[in-house]
Prior knowledge:
The chain is of the alpha+beta class.
Amino acid sequence: MKRLVAGAILVAVSVLSGVTGHARTAGLGALGGPAGAETAVPPAQEAQHTTLRMLAYNIKHGLGNDGKVDLERTAAVINAQRPDLVALQEVDNGVERTGGVDQARRLGELTGMYAVFGDFMEYQGGHYGMAILSRHPIIESENHRLPAGVEPRSALAVRVRVDDSGREIVFVGIHLYSTLEERLCQAKRVVDALADEAVPVILAGDFNSTPDSEVMSLVGGGWTLPEKGEDRLTFSSDNPRQEIDFFGYRPSGAFEVVEQRVIDEPVASDHRPVLLVVRMR
């Protein structure tokens, strides 16, 4: 993974001061986080079990089912779940239809989290893509280009240090599109791009594929896909009829699933967000 490569723009947001930092550029080292006292690493016999709360959410550039673009409403949905990491799909940056707003930066401000934007393509004077929000400082980021279909696609990956003992994970935002053939090629590229990653990896996002599809069978060959429970349909939010948003993680022994559920939010977007809570072993 490269440090903040072109196409992945990172914005640091200070939780304490509320001041947004400038976009970081390639070649910079790890970012400092919000101010706070250092914590000593506990001895091995008292090892802590880090818990991570994660959200996958296709926000449709903040456009709700009521026809209103409202990022404050989007941020309220996110904040209600108190996540440590968030994978957002369909995010605008400087696009005419959403008033030229840098949506990743704005959502970082509204949630008090670090924000990374990864573009798919140029659109209406700006860029369209995805974003990741993180409560933990982001060490590095890469926007993996995927085989293009009707629209270009990428997988946005960030490396974060999740506790004081120095443990790291790679968190990857996914939005595959649009035909089965295209999605299958994109999923294969994701698998190949992350094949040599040594730390635990979590995939999160909109796969545009159902559980019984070839795409999810491919992903499930390398990642554990936890069950959501009876209420598992994620699209559309006001009339749920498909399960197309997922989490996956590897290796299977790295995490214990504490909770996974779909959030019943029928207005803020056309997708329902998915919450996954895990404990690192």
